[in-house]
Amino acid sequence: MRTALGELRPTRVEVTDDYITAHLADGRAVSVPLWWSWRLERATPAQRANYEVYPDGGFHWPDVDEDISVEGMIFGTPAPRPV
User: Fold this and answer.
1) Mean of pLDDT values over 27-46
2) How much is the pTM?
3) Are 76 and 34 in contact (CB under 8 A)?
């Protein structure tokens, strides 16, 4: 994905107990707090480690049905929590 910020092509993602960090092909990394995704916050380490990279700029975690885009990490807001 090409934006005013340049190429947002992700290569991998790390999910820790505190952050979701997207690593980009140009060497940059973008992080958001883990609480931005309640699904990943509740996921096990194995579920967090099982993801797919979307070439158009995002990630998918099939075990918890979560999708996060790099653009969303930069310009977006946290996912609404279920009521």
Assistant:
1) 96
2) 0.88
3) no
